[in-house]
Amino acid sequence: MKQIRNFINGEFVDSATWFDKITPYDGKVVARVGQASQSDVDAAVTAAHGALSGSWGTMPLTERLAMLHAVADEIDRRFDDFAAAEMSDIGQPAHFIRHVDVPRGAANFKIFADVVKNVSTEFFEMATPDGRGALNYAMRRPVGVVAVICPWNLPFLLMTWKLGPAMACGNTVVVKPSEETPQTAALLAEVMNAVGVPKGVFNVVNGFGPKDTGEFLTTHPKVGAITFTGETRTGAAIMKAAADGARPVSLEMGGKNAAIVFADCDMDAAIEGTLRSAFANCGQVCLGTERVYVERPIFEAFVQRMKRGAELMKPGLPEDPASGMGPLISNEHRTKVLSYYRKAVAEGATVVTGGGIPDMAPALSGGWWVQPTIWTGLLDSATVMREEIFGPCCHISPFDTEEEVILRSNDNQYGLASAVWTTNLARSHRMAGVLEVGIVWINSWFLRDLRTPFGGSKQSGIGREGGVHSLEFYTELKNVCIKL
Length: 484
Ligand code: NAD
Known about the structure:
Strand content: 15-25%
Bound molecules: nicotinamide-adenine-dinucleotide
Radius of gyration: 23 Å
Shape: globular
Structural class: alpha/beta
Number of strands: 23
Distance between the termini: 67 Å
Number of helices: 16
Largest sheet: 7 strands, mixed
CATH architecture of the largest domain: 3-Layer(aba) Sandwich
CATH topology of the largest domain: Aldehyde Dehydrogenase, Chain A, domain 1
CATH superfamily of the largest domain: Aldehyde Dehydrogenase, Chain A, domain 1
């Protein structure tokens, strides 16, 4: 049986206790994962703290950034290993993993190295009463040991989205992958050693969240900042832990995202984009659409085309070219998603398609499969219209006016992303201004330029990452005032 060990101070280390990694498509155990104890976490944070003042701390910027380019190149060289690990961890179709997770994950190291290289800081000349003046300039310095707490839904992409800027800014890191998806972090540790990243700069501790590895890490006094992606209630717990020692947090959390489809849209594009945003990664994308509002004249046609599209998505194994969708991540998550499927019906939804578990071949019947599901007929107050489900499902409602749909889509505790489908440029700009979210897509979804700000408003997040915005979190900005 494959063993996934924690990576502390440049070495893979054994653990006293182990837990199972189960593949979501057949329910089989594929690996044993070392569970990091409090003392393992302490060793990892201590190593990361020590590495701040070692060769990493004194390394010229160009050398550090070249090392991150080498990390990306080594990931590319081992592309198939990363793709296989990610497929085994999350069970999604190979084309998605090969076109999104792994290449974007590698790119995160290069993009942020380039950002750090090219961003300047401010400079002010100041008059003083003696006439000689003073100069002010700012410099950026690392915040220290960054705890990186990751979710399971796009494990490699979301982990590197934080590691890239954290390391480019000169911090050291202790990563806690999700207990569901430990495999790519272990591969990344091999990559760090292969390209010569100094010992202690990059550490991985595996385990669970509350009262376990995650909490040991976020409460460790030598952790200087915590960056987290995951559920909103976990983010709140982490924020409380960070209050001790007044450590900064960057929180990327849940969503209940709306797509708004106007009658003047390019219908083919709107259908293609909404099918993707509702069902990609089996609906387990924080930016995914669970509420769709369609202008009444095209409502019926839109629902019928979504139904046809959903019914063409065949569930299957990652490497099967016919596979349009993988399973959910775990039995526990499937139980949660199916409970929402039942709740939708109990609250009066019309099930347009799906609503249950698909028939699978005997070899796959132990996996966590669910049907892509579309509902109509619910009020905005229904449970499945308000709470994040994080499964392959959406509700489609008609609307009549722009004012109405703005109020309805904003009426939610989350504020992560929206997709607006219209060919009216003035309207799209108007909508972008009033939607209470961190990201608005017009006539697209999941199109990401990594230089742009990423994050959520309301209960979807605190802070922005991406491009220069990541520097705000991963560095201390220090002002130097020189009296002439
Ligand atoms: P989760 O909150 O259950 O777990 C995320 C991580 O936090 C895991 O590594 C977990 O072990 C750890 N954790 C849990 N409790 C902890 C604690 N008390 N202290 C320290 N660590 C703790 O989230 P998940 O189920 O892995 O991911 C799905 C969620 O993530 C969804 O809500 C989704 O919307 C959200 N998400 C948000 C974004 C975004 O960018 N906004 C991106 C992806 C996923």
